[in-house]
Each structure stands twice: as C-alpha cells, then as structure tokens.
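Researcher: Let's do a round of design. I'm pasting the structure tokens now; please hold your answer until I've finished.
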C-alpha cells in the first residue's frame, strides 16, 4: 500500500507541472528512488539530483528522504541538498517543491549560505534562536530577507529605500513574535507562511494534535479524525499581521479584508503555502459533499494532493470564527466570559441593533470548568493577569478548541448553547427550524453518500429504526424545517389500505369508512411503453413542470405492487402530453409482495419487469390519475407525517443499490440520480442519517474482503445477530466513565472494574435512543424496580423487551410487519451490550435486573440486531470466541443467545487502563531491550504516566495509554543475548561496564517532549548501539551505554573509555595519562536528542570529569562548560543519515585529537553543571558561525518556561 501510494504520487508528479527549475523527473534504479534535473534558467548547467526514500514502508506518513547530487555538482549545491530538512512525510511533489525553493534561493545567493526553503520557514526555528541570543540583530543578519529593511509600518507598506530598520518595524516584529511566542508557550505549534515579519500578506498557523484534546476514541471515529492528526487554524492576514487590538477596532467590512480564518486538519502541523492559499480559495462547487468525502477518490486531482482537509465541522467553524470572533473578543475585553460573550452576542443580534443592552450579570461569571477535559481546554489567555495586550492567534485558537472539542454543546448553525441535557457524540442543530433547514441545505451535515459507501448497513439500520418508529407513531421530532413537498395524504384510496394499516399500526384506528371524496387528482391516460401521460380534461395550463414528482395510480390496478407509481416529470413541452421517467414502484417489503421484492428498484435499465402480464396492457392508454408532490409536510397532522415518511422511504432503493450507483457514477452524488430518488425522499434520507447522534460502526459487513477489518472486534455468544460497535454520549463521556470506574475500583478494591449487561428496547424506540442517548425519562415498560436504565445479564430477558411493542411476526413468518420495504437487513429486534461500573450493590436494583441510575456508570459498547437479510451479500461472522478474550467478572458474565458472551480484549480499553494504573512498578528490570520497548512505544509519550497523578493520565487519550501499557504485540526485533565480556577478546582495558551510578550525576530533567517518529527512530538507534556493543570488544569500541539504565530515549548517558588505545607518535594520549593518574576510568557524557531528530543533531556534553578549557591549555573539542564543540554536532555539519554509532565514534576521536584534551586536575572529580554546558555550546557556535539547532533551548534546558506543552 505505501509503495503503491508512492508510485502513484511519483506518476502524478511526472504528469504534473513541476516546481520551478525542476524537469526530467524519472524513476530511479532502486525502489523508492527518483531522479530529476534542476537548472536555473540555463539548461546546460542542469544538475542531476537524486532522492531516495530508505524506508518506503513509511510512505506517505513518516518516511524521510535522502537527497544528493551527482559528483559534478558544485559543492555549495551538494551541501545545500544535504541540508534540506523537514522532508519527513512529504509527498514526492512536496519534496520537489522544497528542493526547488532551496536551489532557487541558492542561485540567487551564490555564497551558499543556504536557509531553509521559505515555505518551510517557521516560527519555531526563529523563536528558538531568538530565545537563545535574545538579540534581534543576530537573528536578522541570519536571514537575508531582513537585511534590506524592507518594511515600514504596521500596515505593511513596502519601502525599498531604507537600508536600516525603522523603530516601527522593530515594534511590529517584536509584537508579532511575542504574540506567536505566547501561542507556542500555551502549547500550540506555530507556523508562519509568507512574509509575516515583513508586514506583507502572510499566514499564521496554530495547531495541536487531536490526541491532546481529550476526545474519546469513539468521538474521533464519529468525527472522522485520528489522534495523530493536527487540528490546524489558519489565519490569513492579507494586509499584513494585525494585532488583537487592531482587529477589534475594525468594522465588519475592514475585518473581512484584513483577516481570513480557516479550520482544517492535517497530518503535518501546518500546511504548505500552496495548501494554505487553496484553503481560502476553495471553489464552492459541491461544497456539501467535499465535507465528508475528502477521503474518497475525487475527480479533481488537486483535492487528492492536499495534505490538509476540512474537518467534519470546518464549514460552521469557519463562519463562526470569521464572523463573530472579533466581536466576541470585544465583549470579552469588557470582562465577559466566553459563554457570557456568546450569550450577549445572540441577544444583541436577535434584537438587532446598536441599542445598548443591559448585560446580564451571569455573562460576567466565569465559565464552569469541566474536569474531564484536559488543561489546555480550560486555559484562557484573556484571564492572564498583568497583561495589557493579548495574542490574537492564541485567543483564536482557544476559541476554536472550545467550539471544536465541545461542538456537541452548540448548535452548528446559530452556535447557541444547546438548550438540552442530552449528550450526543455528534454535533447537531438546535430545535429551531431555520437551523435545521440551513444545516441541511448549507452543507453542514454529513454526506449521505459517504455514509452509504462506507457503512451501508448502518444506513439501513438508521432507516429501519426511523421507519419502525414512524409506523408506530413514536417519532418525537419530524423533519419540519426541510420544506419537504410530499405526496398529498391519501387515506381514501382503497388500494392503500394494506399498508395504510401498516403505517398506522398501534395508533388510534383510522376510519376507512370516511372515504367519500378521493383526493382530487388529474385524470390521464398512461402509455407504459412511451412513458407518456395525456390529460383527458386538458387544464388551462400544465399543472406540473419538469422535475416535479407525481404519484400515479392505475384505475385498473394490476397488482398491489402497482398500487402507486412515483415518477419524475421529464418533459412538458408537448402538453397536454407529458413525459415521465421510468416509474418507481413502492417497495412494500417481502411480506406484502409475492413477486421479487427487488424487481425494478433500479431505474437504470430493466425494461421488462415493468410490463404487466395483464390484458390491460393491450390498450395503449391506460386509465390513470395522478397527484403531485406538493403537500407541505410541516402543515400535516402527526399521523399523516408518519405516513408520509413511510411512503417516501418506501420509494427508496435498498442501500446496496444506492451504494452500487455511487460506485459507478462520478461524482458520487445522489442529487444526480434525479429519475430514481425524489428530492423529498433524498432530503428525508439526509435527515435520517444526519440527525443520528450516536456513533455506530459495522463489525459485520459484506461478504467480501474489504470488511474483514473489524473481525477482531467481534464477540461470541450472539449467533445470528449482526454486530455493530456502538457509542453514545458526549465526547468526554468515556473519560467520565473511566473516572467513575477507576474510583469504584479503588474504593471497592475490585479485581475487575466493570461488567457487561444487555439493554433492550422495542425497535420503535431506537430511533429516539440514538438521538437522545440512554436515559430513563420515558420508560415504556414500567419502573417496577426503580428509576434507571434497565439491564439484564441474559440476552433473552432483554430481547423480550426488545420485541415488545407488538410488531409481531410478519405474514410469511420471517419479516415482521412494519419493516422498511427496501431493507436489506430486515431487522426484528435490537439489543445493546453496555459496560457498567462493577458495583451492583450500589445500583438502584440489582435483582432481577441491574437498574442503573448513574448515567456516567454506563457506556454502550455494542449493538446487536437480529435480522433476516434479504440479500446474501450480508455476512454475519462466525460465532467463534475471540482469541484474546477480556477477563470478565466470573459471577457476572452476560449470556447471549448462543452461550456466554466472550468479548475481545482489544475492543474494551477500560479494564486494561485501570489494571495498569493499579499495577505496582516492578522492582526488577526486565531485559534492557524489553524495557526499551516498553518505554518507547510509538505514541507521543515516551514517558510513563505517573501512577499517582490522575490529572496527568486524563490528559492522555485512551489510545495513547493503551499503546503504552497495552498488550499490543511488541515490534519485531531480534534481541541478541547479552554476551559475557570475557568472551570478547580485545585489547585490555581498566574500564568495567555497569559501574556508573546515574543517581550521582547532575542530570538535566528528562525531556518531556516526543514525537512518535523520533521515538521510534531513537529506539532503533539505541538497539543498534546495544547490538554493536554486545558484539565488539570493550577497548576496541571505546564507548559504553548502560542500556538498562536509560530512562528516556531522548537522553542517553554514554561513557567513553579506553583512551589508552590511542597512540600519538608512539606516545600515550595525554588524556589517558591524566585519567590514569586521577583514577578516572571513563568520561561520562550526556547525549540529548531533540524531538525532530534525526533532522537536527543531538546535544552532547561531558558530565564528568572536568576538563581544562582551551585558554587553560585544554582541547579535545570540549569547551568551557563541558559541551562538545564539533561542527558535526551543529546544524551546519549534521547529516540526518549519520548513525549514532558513528557519531559516538567521531566524538571519541574528536576528544583524542589535537589540541589535546586535558583533565582539570584541580577540580578533582567534579562535574559540569547543565547551564554552563549549554551556554558554552551556544558561545562556541557563535564563535564558529555555526547554526544552533532549532529547539536547542528546549532540548538543553529542559521544558521551556511556562511549560505549556506538558505532553
Ligand atoms: Zn440553532
């Protein structure tokens, strides 16, 4: 797959317009290698450049590139190519872009003083330097862009005349940097695109990994984001950067032209410049569908190329931030809270106007804090004390988090706080009809096309639930806001009676006797072959127009199936003859029709099925009448609404047919299937799907390879039931549940923190359950055992409830009455398996049912439906027990329809998380390599979470914790058995490994940063060093790492020893002599890695013993403070392809080279402090003109002050 993606990207690039200067893009000799020519204007001077992806399997997420030129390339170009960084995870085309920018810039600047490509320049690099030097001049002289002093004022007019910077420019830059630094310190990644510091059109991006937002995995799944994605806020300043104060002062028109705001998600923490530009120029075409379909193949290639995509709620959020943020900030400056400002905003905007409104006191009260959300969600920059100016980017980002993470609390359209206690996992709109209308029509809702393609049976389920609920008249909300034009209700038509009864089942009986005046229709003749209608009594003008839908009824109805035909008007030009599309036959389900229920549901080609075998067909014009879809749905009675919903749903094809249509037609848009699905039915379908607020994921699926994915989540004990994973509740519900489970587990000292039990409900209730969540406000089946959600351990008990509601069994004994006719699943009951805190004694009742009143004690996990699939494509998995079963409380194991329920451990994280929190730390170290693996993981946190600190673990997502402590298979490595040193013969040495006591060393705090890719890479390096070490005689190697003692992959303690093996002109190395005299056996060094290793060098310093400085006659590349000063270890000399083994060897060589290192004998066995080392290093770099690696400060001094990014 990665390789295929790579090949596709390469081919795509080959057919594309290549970035400036680049041509002749060719596939290279090796897999993962490609070559191209670069020339700047003059083709004869073209340079051949080769790029290689060493780990093609990482493509396109975390791969790196090696880039090099041919032998004949000028040295400055070769060097510049070596120094190209930030290629990690870039597509082929993006890499070409980077190379192009780098080399173009180089040609303009032949000194070879390369800088990173402009589009990759970001604030982090700059701030690090700035923090280190605290001097603008050094920064400026480093960047040619600033040498010309091209800016003028805050408004950014360019003045090319001045050679020196004006004070206003300095102030502007200082403010910009300060604003961005505040955002970074608050825990966000900050990037700049364009010419922000010059005061021109620029983008500022802020981002944060989704994993840090405290969103449950279920919510991520429902929202279609992944933990490793970044949530990115792009701020565009078309006229140069503007401060918070400036923006608040603008009226709406000036605001529009001075700030643009977009929200997106991406694999990288910021988009490229091109992507940022594109984000603001997206063509409105297909706006609705680009929302949820961005991961589907799109005909427009530019969409596929982008590494950023809109999030599921980008559209509403873009509008919210763009239109309201500045005003809200103005209110906030007056002392209101976010909620207060929002409330005041809607008050002011609803009363219209400039009338000074009295602001209610509550608007000034602080927002309540939800402890289940991570700290970063509560941070409020405007509450920072002692500030007079505030960072707009930071405020915007904090506001975005509020509305992204807590999106389910707000109406997606009017953004008012939802006036409801209901908790849902997906955002929706408030009760306002206007909001519903806009939600559906402005493209805010999910794409039904995506849902049907991805999860057809979930859609089937949703429609079936709705249908059943409508049949039973149990719907509580109707799609009133959608302006549906539906067929007129027609209780008079005798033909309708069979399903008239179905529709009205269980409600007040309708009197069929009242049939006196049939709904007025138009009498026509119908020619089946030509699909023409002719008006018998010609009305004055044609009552229908092209695109209208009509309900056609034969006077001599042939079969029940033909009771009514729904069709679209195709042509009215030849009125009184009109042409219609091929009619859609109501699909009344298997129990009502003797013929194939699926005949003629596909309006594309089958012409024969429609021909009736009756004599009526012999006459050309059959007698018929029709009514138009012109009834305003909203004004209908409740029972007519239910009836209309069923009727419209009966016109729909089954989900597999829709899926097939969408696969075959591009763009995959049901709006285009005009002759098969009426606008009313489509709107209704959209409503059914978009108003679902639970997360339901198919476990069982189609009988083909693509659905094998979820097999590991299948549980056993429920044979013949289709399984779905099922999550409900707010995004922080999982965390609250976990907290409750953890508390009870500790309080009751439980061995198993949770139990599982069934919750059943009649089918007609499920439509509301998945919208409102589990609650016990309206319980149908009595409250004999108290108020709460009822659970049973035995599935048959709950399915008793599930089949209540009197739907009974259908005529043919298999399909129950009231089943949606086109359903593929044809479900007869539904049952949820819930996870509950294991404290039955504290339930409202525990016998015979578990009645649980604490909603935070319950999490839905699975949904089971018993069904009679109408098609054999549906595959219900085998009822084989999962291999890795979850340990359940033996006395409380739920019973399914086919035995005890066995739950796969992988599907439930709660137990594992709580158990691991409780597990005491092992007193013994496991094998070093094993420990390493346990430490490392591939997630963001290499640092084990503090067992005692609840708040810390809350900050990690379940997936992170799961990966850290989980039982996932360990990455494959061949740990070599540690050989005994005695067996490795080599030169003698006095060094004995394993003697060093780390606790005596003055160490810097462990790094708190990490990225999964770097952690993985460092683990590899450490393992590789460990293997080399095991296989090489001590004195030959000269360095030693006590792998078992390394706590954190980003901080290595290395001992260099056996310096006596060096001979300089027949003499011993002075250092070896000194060491022998002092009884020093090794030089202890700290090697510290930055989070973007290997793209920046490690920081290396001597901890002990102390050496003489250069001016004291010392040397060995060890500067005052103990830092190693070698070009290799600076950005200038570093190469990302160096292995740590070779780096260690070179460091040892550097210490042994001239001028020779000498021990400071007067210092005895003293150690260097951490601060002096870093200072010495920066000074040395300055002296040599070497570039200090970005992120050095964080790396060398530990967490940056203010320490926003704790994880
Ligand atoms: Zn609303």
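Researcher: That's everything. Go ahead.
Model: Designed sequence:
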């Amino acid at each position: 797959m990665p390789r295929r993606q790579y090949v596709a990207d390469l081919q795509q690039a080959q057919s594309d317009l290549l970035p400036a200067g680049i041509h002749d893009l060719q596939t290279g000799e090796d897999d993962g290698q490609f070559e191209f020519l670069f020339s700047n204007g003059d083709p004869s001077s073209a340079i051949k450049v080769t790029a290689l992806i060493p780990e093609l399997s990482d493509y396109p997420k975390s791969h790196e590139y090696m880039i090099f030129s041919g032998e004949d390339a000028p040295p400055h170009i070769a060097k510049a190519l070596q120094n190209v960084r930030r290629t990690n995870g870039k597509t082929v085309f993006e890499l070409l872009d980077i190379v192009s920018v780098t080399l173009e810039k180089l040609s303009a600047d032949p000194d070879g003083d390369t800088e990173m490509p402009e589009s990759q320049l970001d604030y982090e690099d700059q701030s690090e330097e700035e923090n280190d030097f605290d001097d603008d001049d050094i920064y400026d002289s480093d960047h040619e862009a600033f040498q010309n002093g091209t800016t003028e004022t805050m408004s950014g007019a360019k003045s090319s005349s001045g050679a020196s910077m004006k004070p206003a420019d300095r102030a502007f830059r200082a403010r910009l940097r300060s604003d961005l630094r505040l955002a970074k310190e608050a825990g966000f990644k900050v990037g700049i695109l364009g010419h922000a510091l010059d005061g021109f059109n620029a983008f500022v991006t802020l981002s944060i990994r989704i994993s840090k937002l405290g969103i449950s995995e279920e919510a991520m799944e429902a929202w279609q984001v992944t933990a490793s994605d970044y949530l990115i806020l792009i701020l565009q300043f078309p006229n140069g950067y503007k401060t918070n104060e400036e923006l608040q002062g603008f009226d709406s028109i000036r605001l529009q032209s001075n700030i643009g705001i977009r929200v997106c998600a991406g694999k990288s923490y910021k988009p490229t410049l091109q992507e940022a530009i594109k984000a603001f120029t997206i063509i409105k075409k297909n706006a609705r569908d680009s929302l949820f379909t961005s991961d589907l193949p799109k005909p427009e290639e530019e969409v596929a190329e982008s590494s950023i995509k809109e999030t599921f709620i980008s559209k509403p959020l873009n509008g919210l931030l763009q239109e309201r943020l500045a005003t809200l900030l103005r209110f906030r400056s007056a002392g209101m809270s976010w909620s207060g400002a929002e409330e005041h905003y809607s008050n002011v905007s609803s009363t219209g106007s400039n009338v000074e409104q009295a602001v209610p006191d509550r608007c000034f009260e602080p927002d309540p804090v939800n402890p289940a959300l991570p700290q970063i969600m509560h941070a409020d920059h405007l509450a920072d004390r002692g500030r007079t100016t505030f960072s707009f980017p930071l405020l915007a980002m904090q506001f975005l988090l509020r509305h992204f993470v807590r999106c389910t609390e707000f109406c997606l359209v009017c953004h008012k706080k939802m006036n409801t206690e209901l908790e849902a996992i997906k955002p929706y709109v408030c009760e306002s009809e206007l909001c519903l209308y806009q939600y559906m029509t402005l493209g805010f809702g999910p794409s039904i096309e995506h849902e049907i393609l991805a999860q057809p049976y979930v859609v089937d389920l949703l429609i079936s639930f709705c249908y059943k609920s409508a049949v039973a008249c149990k719907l509580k909300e109707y799609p009133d806001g959608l302006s549906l034009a539906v067929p007129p209700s027609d209780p008079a038509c005798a033909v309708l009676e069979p399903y008239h009864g179905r529709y009205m089942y269980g409600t007040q009986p309708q009197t069929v006797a009242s049939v006196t005046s049939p709904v007025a229709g138009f009498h026509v003749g119908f020619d089946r072959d030509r699909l023409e209608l002719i008006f018998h009594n010609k009305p004055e003008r044609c009552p229908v127009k092209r695109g209208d839908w009509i309900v056609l009824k034969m006077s001599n109805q042939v079969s029940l199936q033909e009771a009514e035909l729904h069709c679209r008007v195709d042509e009215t030009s030849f009125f009184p003859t009109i042409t219609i599309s091929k009619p859609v036959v109501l699909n009344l389900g298997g129990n009502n029709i003797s013929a194939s229920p699926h005949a003629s549901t596909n309006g594309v080609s089958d012409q024969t099925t429609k021909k009736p075998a009756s004599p009526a067909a012999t006459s050309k014009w059959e007698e018929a009448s029709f009514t138009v879809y012109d009834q305003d749905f909203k004004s209908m009675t409740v029972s007519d609404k239910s009836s209309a919903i069923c009727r419209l749903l009966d016109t729909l094809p089954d989900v597999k047919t829709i899926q097939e249509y969408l696969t075959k037609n591009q763009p995959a848009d049901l709006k285009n299937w005009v002759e098969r699905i009426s606008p009313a039915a489509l709107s209704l379908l959209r409503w059914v799907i978009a108003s679902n607020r639970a997360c339901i994921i198919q476990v069982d699926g189609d009988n083909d390879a693509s659905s094998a994915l979820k097999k590991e989540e299948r549980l056993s004990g429920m044979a013949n039931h289709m399984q779905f994973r099922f999550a409900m509740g707010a995004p922080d519900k999982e965390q609250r549940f976990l907290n409750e489970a953890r508390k009870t587990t500790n309080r009751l000292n439980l061995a198993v923190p949770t139990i599982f039990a069934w919750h059943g409900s009649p089918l007609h209730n499920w439509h509301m359950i998945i919208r409102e969540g589990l609650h016990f406000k309206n319980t149908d089946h009595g409250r004999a055992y108290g108020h709460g959600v009822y659970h049973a351990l035995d599935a048959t008990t709950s399915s008793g409830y599930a089949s209540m509601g009197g739907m009974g069994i259908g005529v043919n004994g298999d399909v129950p009455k009231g089943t949606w006719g086109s359903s593929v699943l044809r479900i007869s009951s539904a049952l949820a398996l819930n996870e509950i805190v294991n404290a039955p004694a504290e339930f409202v009742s525990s016998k015979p049912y578990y009645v649980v009143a604490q909603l935070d004690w319950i999490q839905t996990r699975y949904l089971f439906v018993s069904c009679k699939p109408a098609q054999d494509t549906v595959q219900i998995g085998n009822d084989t027990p999962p291999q890795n079963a979850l340990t359940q409380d033996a006395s409380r194991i739920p019973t399914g329809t086919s035995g005890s329920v066995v739950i796969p451990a992988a599907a439930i994280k709660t137990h594992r998380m709580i158990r691991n929190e409780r597990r005491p730390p092992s007193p013994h170290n496991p094998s070093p390599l094993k420990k390493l693996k346990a430490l490392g993981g591939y997630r963001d946190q290499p640092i084990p979470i503090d067992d005692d600190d609840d708040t810390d673990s809350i900050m990690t997502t379940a997936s992170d914790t799961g990966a850290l402590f989980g039982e996932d298979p360990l990455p494959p490595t061949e740990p070599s058995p540690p050989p005994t040193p005695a067996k490795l013969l080599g030169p003698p040495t006095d060094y004995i490994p394993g003697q060093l006591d780390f606790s005596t060393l003055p160490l810097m705090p462990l790094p708190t940063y990490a990225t999964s890719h770097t952690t993985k890479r460092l683990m590899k390096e450490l393992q590789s060093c460990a293997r080399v070490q095991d296989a090489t005689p001590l004195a030959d190697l000269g360095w030693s790492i006590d792998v078992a003692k390394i706590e954190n992959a980003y901080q290595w303690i290395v001992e260099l020893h056996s310096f006596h093996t060096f001979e300089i002109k027949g003499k011993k190395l002075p250092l070896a002599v000194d060491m022998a005299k002092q009884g020093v056996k090794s030089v202890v060094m700290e090697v510290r890695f930055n989070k973007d290793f290997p793209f920046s060098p490690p920081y290396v310093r001597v901890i002990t013993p102390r050496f003489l400085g250069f001016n004291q006659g010392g040397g060995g590349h060890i500067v005052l403070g103990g830092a190693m000063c070698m070009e290799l270890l600076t950005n200038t000399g570093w190469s990302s392809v160096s292995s740590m083994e070779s780096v260690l060897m070179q460091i040892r060589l550097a210490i042994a080279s001239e001028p020779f290192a000498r021990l400071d004998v007067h210092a005895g066995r003293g150690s260097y402090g951490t601060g002096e080392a870093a200072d010495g290093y920066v000074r040395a770099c300055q002296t040599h003109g070497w570039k200090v690696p970005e992120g050095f400060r964080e790396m060398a001094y530990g967490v940056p002050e203010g320490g926003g990014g704790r994880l």
